[in-house]
Amino acid sequence: MKINTAKEVIKTSCIIYHQKTNRRGNMKKLLLIFVVILIIAGLSFAGGKKEAAPAGEAQKGTAEPAKKTVTLTVALMSADIPEATQKFLDAFSQAYPNIKVDYVDVGNSVEEYLQPKAAAGVMPDFFSINGGSFGGDLVDKGIIADISGTDAAKNTIDSVKPQFTSAGGKLFGIAGGVSSSLIYYNKDLFDKLGVKPAENWEDFLVLCETIKKAGYTPLIITPADGTISNTAFSHGFANNVAPKEPDYVNKIRMGTLNLNTPEFAEVYNMVKVLYDKGYTQEGALSTEYLTGNNMYVQGKAAMHFAGTWLAGTLLNTDFNTEVFMAPWNKKGTKKIPIVATETGWGVAEGPHKAEAILLLNWLNGPGFTMYQNPRKCIPHLKKVEGNVILAQEIVGFLDELYKYDKTAGLWFVYLLAPVMPFTYKFYQELLLG
Fold first, then answer.
1. What is the pTM of this model?
2. What is the pLDDT of residues 277-303, one digit of tens each?
3. Handedness of CA 415, 416, 422, 424 (dihedral sign)
4. Does residue 215 sit in the same domain as residue 158?
Protein backbone atom coordinates (compact mmCIF):
# COMPACT_ATOMS: atom_id res chain seq x y z
CA MET A 1 0.00 0.00 0.00
CA LYS A 2 1.57 3.25 -1.03
CA ILE A 3 1.03 6.24 1.22
CA ASN A 4 -0.02 9.45 -0.48
CA THR A 5 2.18 12.50 -0.03
CA ALA A 6 1.64 14.85 2.87
CA LYS A 7 0.27 17.49 0.52
CA GLU A 8 -2.33 15.17 -0.99
CA VAL A 9 -3.53 13.69 2.29
CA ILE A 10 -3.53 16.81 4.42
CA LYS A 11 -4.45 19.42 1.86
CA THR A 12 -7.59 17.58 0.76
CA SER A 13 -8.99 17.43 4.27
CA CYS A 14 -7.82 20.89 5.34
CA ILE A 15 -9.31 22.64 2.30
CA ILE A 16 -12.68 21.09 3.08
CA TYR A 17 -12.61 22.10 6.73
CA HIS A 18 -11.08 25.56 6.27
CA GLN A 19 -14.06 26.18 4.09
CA LYS A 20 -16.36 24.87 6.83
CA THR A 21 -14.67 26.71 9.64
CA ASN A 22 25.42 1.82 26.18
CA ARG A 23 24.62 -1.49 26.52
CA ARG A 24 25.81 -2.49 23.05
CA GLY A 25 25.50 -6.24 23.68
CA ASN A 26 21.92 -5.94 24.81
CA MET A 27 21.08 -3.69 21.88
CA LYS A 28 22.57 -6.14 19.37
CA LYS A 29 20.78 -9.09 20.95
CA LEU A 30 17.42 -7.31 20.89
CA LEU A 31 17.83 -6.24 17.28
CA LEU A 32 18.72 -9.76 16.17
CA ILE A 33 15.56 -11.08 17.88
CA PHE A 34 13.53 -8.40 16.11
CA VAL A 35 15.05 -9.37 12.75
CA VAL A 36 14.20 -13.06 13.27
CA ILE A 37 10.61 -12.23 14.24
CA LEU A 38 10.28 -9.97 11.22
CA ILE A 39 11.55 -12.65 8.82
CA ILE A 40 9.15 -15.25 10.25
CA ALA A 41 6.26 -12.79 10.07
CA GLY A 42 7.15 -11.93 6.49
CA LEU A 43 7.14 -15.57 5.46
CA SER A 44 3.79 -16.10 7.19
CA PHE A 45 2.30 -13.07 5.49
CA ALA A 46 3.61 -14.02 2.06
CA GLY A 47 2.60 -17.65 2.22
CA GLY A 48 -0.13 -18.06 4.78
CA LYS A 49 -3.17 -16.41 3.22
CA LYS A 50 -6.44 -18.27 3.05
CA GLU A 51 -8.92 -17.88 0.27
CA ALA A 52 -11.34 -15.02 0.86
CA ALA A 53 -15.04 -15.70 0.66
CA PRO A 54 -16.54 -15.14 -2.80
CA ALA A 55 -17.84 -11.61 -3.26
CA GLY A 56 -21.48 -12.63 -3.35
CA GLU A 57 -21.17 -14.89 -0.32
CA ALA A 58 -19.34 -12.24 1.70
CA GLN A 59 -22.21 -9.83 1.20
CA LYS A 60 -24.99 -12.17 2.31
CA GLY A 61 -27.30 -10.83 4.96
CA THR A 62 -26.27 -7.19 4.60
CA ALA A 63 -29.10 -5.81 2.52
CA GLU A 64 -31.60 -5.47 5.38
CA PRO A 65 -30.81 -5.12 9.09
CA ALA A 66 -32.87 -7.32 11.40
CA LYS A 67 -36.22 -5.98 12.63
CA LYS A 68 -35.98 -7.98 15.85
CA THR A 69 -33.82 -6.79 18.75
CA VAL A 70 -30.14 -7.38 18.10
CA THR A 71 -27.16 -6.94 20.42
CA LEU A 72 -24.17 -5.54 18.59
CA THR A 73 -20.74 -6.26 20.08
CA VAL A 74 -18.59 -3.14 19.76
CA ALA A 75 -14.88 -2.91 20.67
CA LEU A 76 -13.33 0.54 20.39
CA MET A 77 -10.06 2.26 21.24
CA SER A 78 -11.67 5.02 23.26
CA ALA A 79 -9.74 5.50 26.49
CA ASP A 80 -9.17 9.19 25.75
CA ILE A 81 -12.90 9.90 25.27
CA PRO A 82 -14.87 7.26 27.25
CA GLU A 83 -17.82 9.53 28.05
CA ALA A 84 -18.13 10.80 24.48
CA THR A 85 -17.94 7.23 23.16
CA GLN A 86 -20.76 6.07 25.40
CA LYS A 87 -22.75 9.14 24.43
CA PHE A 88 -22.59 8.52 20.67
CA LEU A 89 -23.31 4.80 21.11
CA ASP A 90 -26.37 5.66 23.22
CA ALA A 91 -27.47 8.12 20.52
CA PHE A 92 -27.10 5.39 17.88
CA SER A 93 -29.29 3.03 19.93
CA GLN A 94 -31.90 5.78 20.21
CA ALA A 95 -31.84 6.20 16.43
CA TYR A 96 -32.16 2.40 15.98
CA PRO A 97 -34.17 1.13 19.00
CA ASN A 98 -33.96 -2.51 17.92
CA ILE A 99 -30.14 -2.43 18.10
CA LYS A 100 -28.55 -2.70 21.54
CA VAL A 101 -24.83 -2.10 21.96
CA ASP A 102 -22.49 -4.20 24.11
CA TYR A 103 -19.39 -1.98 24.21
CA VAL A 104 -15.86 -2.62 25.50
CA ASP A 105 -12.67 -0.59 25.27
CA VAL A 106 -9.82 -2.42 23.49
CA GLY A 107 -7.03 -0.84 25.52
CA ASN A 108 -3.95 0.67 23.91
CA SER A 109 -3.32 -1.84 21.11
CA VAL A 110 -5.94 -2.69 18.52
CA GLU A 111 -3.85 -5.51 17.07
CA GLU A 112 -3.16 -7.18 20.42
CA TYR A 113 -6.88 -7.12 21.19
CA LEU A 114 -8.15 -8.32 17.81
CA GLN A 115 -5.50 -10.92 16.94
CA PRO A 116 -6.70 -13.61 19.38
CA LYS A 117 -10.34 -12.78 18.59
CA ALA A 118 -9.72 -13.35 14.88
CA ALA A 119 -7.82 -16.58 15.56
CA ALA A 120 -10.66 -17.90 17.73
CA GLY A 121 -13.40 -16.81 15.31
CA VAL A 122 -15.04 -14.49 17.84
CA MET A 123 -14.53 -11.08 16.26
CA PRO A 124 -16.68 -8.23 17.62
CA ASP A 125 -19.32 -7.03 15.16
CA PHE A 126 -17.89 -3.50 15.02
CA PHE A 127 -14.38 -2.54 16.07
CA SER A 128 -11.50 -0.11 15.93
CA ILE A 129 -8.84 -1.03 13.39
CA ASN A 130 -5.64 0.50 12.08
CA GLY A 131 -4.58 0.78 8.49
CA GLY A 132 -1.88 -1.60 7.29
CA SER A 133 -1.28 -5.27 6.66
CA PHE A 134 -3.08 -6.64 9.74
CA GLY A 135 -6.55 -5.55 8.60
CA GLY A 136 -5.67 -6.24 4.98
CA ASP A 137 -4.89 -9.84 5.79
CA LEU A 138 -8.16 -10.25 7.73
CA VAL A 139 -10.35 -8.92 4.93
CA ASP A 140 -8.58 -10.99 2.27
CA LYS A 141 -9.22 -14.08 4.41
CA GLY A 142 -12.92 -13.19 4.66
CA ILE A 143 -12.81 -12.63 8.44
CA ILE A 144 -13.82 -8.98 8.23
CA ALA A 145 -15.95 -7.21 5.65
CA ASP A 146 -15.09 -5.31 2.49
CA ILE A 147 -16.91 -2.04 3.21
CA SER A 148 -16.10 -0.24 -0.04
CA GLY A 149 -19.79 -0.03 -1.02
CA THR A 150 -20.98 1.64 2.18
CA ASP A 151 -22.18 5.23 2.53
CA ALA A 152 -19.29 5.80 4.94
CA ALA A 153 -16.78 4.80 2.27
CA LYS A 154 -18.41 6.99 -0.35
CA ASN A 155 -18.14 9.98 2.01
CA THR A 156 -14.45 9.37 2.81
CA ILE A 157 -11.80 11.38 0.97
CA ASP A 158 -9.91 9.15 -1.45
CA SER A 159 -6.44 10.08 -0.18
CA VAL A 160 -6.92 8.26 3.16
CA LYS A 161 -8.24 5.02 1.66
CA PRO A 162 -4.96 3.36 0.53
CA GLN A 163 -3.84 2.63 4.10
CA PHE A 164 -7.13 0.76 4.65
CA THR A 165 -7.05 -1.13 1.35
CA SER A 166 -5.80 -4.72 1.26
CA ALA A 167 -3.41 -6.30 -1.21
CA GLY A 168 -6.53 -7.80 -2.78
CA GLY A 169 -8.04 -4.35 -3.31
CA LYS A 170 -10.65 -4.54 -0.52
CA LEU A 171 -11.47 -1.65 1.80
CA PHE A 172 -11.42 -3.02 5.36
CA GLY A 173 -11.70 0.17 7.40
CA ILE A 174 -12.85 3.77 7.44
CA ALA A 175 -10.19 6.11 8.81
CA GLY A 176 -11.07 8.00 11.97
CA GLY A 177 -9.29 11.06 10.61
CA VAL A 178 -5.93 12.29 9.34
CA SER A 179 -3.11 12.20 11.87
CA SER A 180 0.50 12.69 12.83
CA SER A 181 2.47 12.68 16.08
CA LEU A 182 4.31 15.68 17.47
CA ILE A 183 5.63 17.42 20.55
CA TYR A 184 3.15 19.26 22.77
CA TYR A 185 4.95 21.81 24.95
CA ASN A 186 4.32 24.23 27.81
CA LYS A 187 4.75 27.59 26.07
CA ASP A 188 4.65 29.50 29.36
CA LEU A 189 7.53 27.46 30.73
CA PHE A 190 9.53 27.80 27.51
CA ASP A 191 9.09 31.60 27.68
CA LYS A 192 10.12 31.63 31.34
CA LEU A 193 13.31 29.70 30.56
CA GLY A 194 14.01 31.65 27.37
CA VAL A 195 14.08 28.53 25.17
CA LYS A 196 12.48 27.65 21.84
CA PRO A 197 11.48 24.39 20.09
CA ALA A 198 14.42 22.49 18.61
CA GLU A 199 14.88 21.86 14.89
CA ASN A 200 17.06 18.74 15.09
CA TRP A 201 18.05 15.93 17.44
CA GLU A 202 21.27 17.47 18.72
CA ASP A 203 19.55 20.76 19.56
CA PHE A 204 16.71 18.82 21.18
CA LEU A 205 19.18 17.24 23.60
CA VAL A 206 20.52 20.71 24.44
CA LEU A 207 16.94 21.90 25.03
CA CYS A 208 16.24 18.96 27.34
CA GLU A 209 19.43 19.60 29.30
CA THR A 210 18.51 23.27 29.78
CA ILE A 211 15.05 22.33 31.05
CA LYS A 212 16.48 19.67 33.38
CA LYS A 213 19.06 22.06 34.86
CA ALA A 214 16.25 24.53 35.58
CA GLY A 215 14.61 21.87 37.76
CA TYR A 216 11.87 20.64 35.43
CA THR A 217 11.17 17.30 33.74
CA PRO A 218 11.84 17.79 30.02
CA LEU A 219 9.75 15.08 28.30
CA ILE A 220 7.04 12.48 28.87
CA ILE A 221 7.33 9.17 27.01
CA THR A 222 5.08 6.09 27.27
CA PRO A 223 7.19 2.91 26.86
CA ALA A 224 4.84 0.79 29.01
CA ASP A 225 2.49 0.17 26.08
CA GLY A 226 2.27 0.38 22.31
CA THR A 227 1.71 4.14 22.21
CA ILE A 228 5.46 4.80 22.11
CA SER A 229 5.31 3.16 18.68
CA ASN A 230 3.19 6.10 17.45
CA THR A 231 5.90 8.51 18.52
CA ALA A 232 9.54 7.56 19.08
CA PHE A 233 9.49 4.38 16.99
CA SER A 234 7.64 5.88 14.01
CA HIS A 235 9.77 9.04 13.91
CA GLY A 236 12.97 7.12 14.59
CA PHE A 237 12.22 4.73 11.74
CA ALA A 238 11.20 7.56 9.40
CA ASN A 239 14.35 9.59 9.98
CA ASN A 240 16.92 6.79 10.29
CA VAL A 241 15.82 3.72 8.32
CA ALA A 242 13.43 5.01 5.63
CA PRO A 243 15.92 7.39 3.90
CA LYS A 244 18.25 4.48 3.09
CA GLU A 245 15.49 1.95 2.37
CA PRO A 246 12.82 3.65 0.20
CA ASP A 247 11.17 0.27 -0.51
CA TYR A 248 10.97 -0.65 3.18
CA VAL A 249 7.22 -1.41 3.12
CA ASN A 250 7.55 -4.20 0.56
CA LYS A 251 10.79 -5.51 2.04
CA ILE A 252 9.20 -5.80 5.48
CA ARG A 253 6.29 -7.76 4.04
CA MET A 254 8.63 -10.16 2.31
CA GLY A 255 10.94 -10.48 5.34
CA THR A 256 13.93 -9.17 3.39
CA LEU A 257 14.60 -5.81 5.07
CA ASN A 258 17.96 -5.85 6.85
CA LEU A 259 17.40 -4.39 10.30
CA ASN A 260 20.72 -5.49 11.74
CA THR A 261 22.02 -2.00 10.99
CA PRO A 262 23.22 1.07 12.92
CA GLU A 263 20.24 2.98 11.52
CA PHE A 264 17.68 0.62 13.03
CA ALA A 265 19.63 0.47 16.29
CA GLU A 266 19.33 4.25 16.45
CA VAL A 267 15.51 4.00 16.46
CA TYR A 268 15.85 2.51 19.95
CA ASN A 269 19.06 4.22 21.02
CA MET A 270 17.53 7.70 20.74
CA VAL A 271 15.03 6.87 23.48
CA LYS A 272 17.75 5.24 25.58
CA VAL A 273 19.79 8.45 25.39
CA LEU A 274 16.82 10.48 26.65
CA TYR A 275 16.19 7.99 29.45
CA ASP A 276 19.83 7.62 30.52
CA LYS A 277 20.36 11.39 30.64
CA GLY A 278 17.35 11.82 32.93
CA TYR A 279 15.29 13.75 30.39
CA THR A 280 12.17 11.63 30.87
CA GLN A 281 9.70 11.51 33.74
CA GLU A 282 10.20 9.56 36.94
CA GLY A 283 8.74 6.08 36.52
CA ALA A 284 8.88 6.34 32.73
CA LEU A 285 9.15 2.57 32.28
CA SER A 286 5.71 2.02 33.76
CA THR A 287 4.02 5.02 32.13
CA GLU A 288 1.12 4.14 29.85
CA TYR A 289 -1.00 6.16 27.45
CA LEU A 290 -3.56 7.71 29.82
CA THR A 291 -1.05 8.24 32.63
CA GLY A 292 1.30 10.13 30.33
CA ASN A 293 -1.50 12.33 29.05
CA ASN A 294 -2.66 13.14 32.58
CA MET A 295 0.88 13.94 33.70
CA TYR A 296 1.27 16.52 30.96
CA VAL A 297 -2.12 18.13 31.60
CA GLN A 298 -1.14 18.39 35.28
CA GLY A 299 2.02 20.28 34.31
CA LYS A 300 4.46 17.57 35.38
CA ALA A 301 6.72 17.96 32.33
CA ALA A 302 7.67 20.61 29.81
CA MET A 303 6.88 18.43 26.77
CA HIS A 304 4.84 15.40 25.79
CA PHE A 305 5.40 13.29 22.66
CA ALA A 306 1.90 12.30 21.46
CA GLY A 307 -0.57 12.20 18.57
CA THR A 308 -2.67 14.89 16.91
CA TRP A 309 -5.72 12.82 17.90
CA LEU A 310 -5.11 13.95 21.50
CA ALA A 311 -5.43 17.65 20.71
CA GLY A 312 -8.76 17.88 22.53
CA THR A 313 -7.10 16.61 25.72
CA LEU A 314 -3.54 17.97 25.60
CA LEU A 315 -4.40 21.49 24.48
CA ASN A 316 -6.91 21.81 27.32
CA THR A 317 -4.40 22.86 30.00
CA ASP A 318 -4.17 25.60 32.63
CA PHE A 319 -1.01 26.80 30.88
CA ASN A 320 -0.50 27.74 27.23
CA THR A 321 0.26 24.66 25.16
CA GLU A 322 1.64 24.77 21.65
CA VAL A 323 3.10 22.12 19.35
CA PHE A 324 6.15 21.52 17.19
CA MET A 325 7.36 18.87 14.79
CA ALA A 326 9.36 16.11 16.46
CA PRO A 327 13.07 16.88 15.82
CA TRP A 328 14.13 13.26 15.33
CA ASN A 329 16.34 14.28 12.39
CA LYS A 330 20.08 14.62 12.84
CA LYS A 331 21.68 18.04 12.37
CA GLY A 332 22.19 18.80 8.68
CA THR A 333 19.38 16.50 7.51
CA LYS A 334 15.80 17.40 6.67
CA LYS A 335 12.99 16.08 8.85
CA ILE A 336 10.82 13.28 7.53
CA PRO A 337 7.51 13.86 9.30
CA ILE A 338 4.72 11.39 9.91
CA VAL A 339 1.51 11.60 7.89
CA ALA A 340 -1.03 8.89 8.51
CA THR A 341 -4.62 8.07 9.21
CA GLU A 342 -6.07 7.73 12.66
CA THR A 343 -7.31 4.42 13.97
CA GLY A 344 -10.54 3.75 12.11
CA TRP A 345 -13.51 1.39 12.18
CA GLY A 346 -14.21 -2.00 10.65
CA VAL A 347 -17.02 -4.55 10.43
CA ALA A 348 -16.84 -8.32 10.92
CA GLU A 349 -18.29 -10.89 8.55
CA GLY A 350 -21.09 -12.39 10.61
CA PRO A 351 -24.80 -12.47 11.43
CA HIS A 352 -24.87 -8.81 12.56
CA LYS A 353 -22.94 -7.38 9.63
CA ALA A 354 -25.90 -5.32 8.41
CA GLU A 355 -26.41 -3.71 11.82
CA ALA A 356 -22.68 -3.04 12.15
CA ILE A 357 -22.72 -1.28 8.77
CA LEU A 358 -25.61 0.85 10.04
CA LEU A 359 -23.37 1.94 12.94
CA LEU A 360 -20.48 2.57 10.54
CA ASN A 361 -22.62 4.79 8.32
CA TRP A 362 -24.18 6.57 11.30
CA LEU A 363 -20.80 7.28 12.91
CA ASN A 364 -19.52 8.71 9.63
CA GLY A 365 -22.75 10.62 9.09
CA PRO A 366 -25.07 12.18 11.67
CA GLY A 367 -23.03 10.91 14.62
CA PHE A 368 -19.59 12.08 13.47
CA THR A 369 -19.42 15.39 15.33
CA MET A 370 -20.19 13.58 18.60
CA TYR A 371 -16.90 11.73 18.00
CA GLN A 372 -14.90 14.58 16.45
CA ASN A 373 -15.72 17.56 18.65
CA PRO A 374 -14.20 16.29 21.92
CA ARG A 375 -11.08 15.09 20.10
CA LYS A 376 -10.69 18.03 17.68
CA CYS A 377 -9.18 15.59 15.19
CA ILE A 378 -8.70 16.31 11.48
CA PRO A 379 -11.77 14.89 9.69
CA HIS A 380 -11.55 12.42 6.83
CA LEU A 381 -15.01 13.04 5.37
CA LYS A 382 -16.05 14.93 2.25
CA LYS A 383 -19.16 16.25 3.98
CA VAL A 384 -19.89 16.55 7.68
CA GLU A 385 -23.33 16.84 9.21
CA GLY A 386 -22.91 19.50 11.90
CA ASN A 387 -20.08 21.74 13.06
CA VAL A 388 -16.47 20.60 13.11
CA ILE A 389 -14.21 21.87 15.90
CA LEU A 390 -10.53 22.10 14.98
CA ALA A 391 -7.60 23.12 17.18
CA GLN A 392 -5.82 26.02 15.51
CA GLU A 393 -2.48 24.76 16.85
CA ILE A 394 -2.96 21.53 14.91
CA VAL A 395 -4.11 23.33 11.77
CA GLY A 396 -0.91 25.41 11.92
CA PHE A 397 1.15 22.25 12.37
CA LEU A 398 -0.49 20.66 9.33
CA ASP A 399 0.21 23.78 7.30
CA GLU A 400 3.89 23.23 8.08
CA LEU A 401 3.64 19.69 6.73
CA TYR A 402 2.88 21.15 3.29
CA LYS A 403 6.59 21.93 2.98
CA TYR A 404 7.64 18.30 3.09
CA ASP A 405 7.62 16.09 0.00
CA LYS A 406 8.98 13.06 1.85
CA THR A 407 6.85 11.64 4.64
CA ALA A 408 6.39 8.29 6.34
CA GLY A 409 3.47 6.48 7.92
CA LEU A 410 2.87 5.34 11.46
CA TRP A 411 4.31 1.99 12.50
CA PHE A 412 1.13 -0.04 12.00
CA VAL A 413 1.08 0.79 8.29
CA TYR A 414 4.23 -1.16 7.49
CA LEU A 415 4.92 -3.57 10.37
CA LEU A 416 3.30 -7.00 10.31
CA ALA A 417 0.97 -7.99 13.14
CA PRO A 418 3.26 -10.61 14.80
CA VAL A 419 6.00 -7.97 15.14
CA MET A 420 3.88 -5.13 16.54
CA PRO A 421 3.89 -6.05 20.26
CA PHE A 422 7.69 -6.21 20.22
CA THR A 423 8.21 -2.58 19.23
CA TYR A 424 7.52 -1.29 22.74
CA LYS A 425 8.65 -4.43 24.57
CA PHE A 426 12.13 -3.94 23.13
CA TYR A 427 12.14 -0.38 24.47
CA GLN A 428 11.36 -1.78 27.92
CA GLU A 429 14.08 -4.44 27.66
CA LEU A 430 16.64 -1.88 26.53
CA LEU A 431 15.80 0.73 29.16
CA LEU A 432 15.90 -1.89 31.90
CA GLY A 433 19.45 -2.66 30.78
1. 0.78
2. 999 999 999 999 999 999 999 999 999
3. positive
4. no
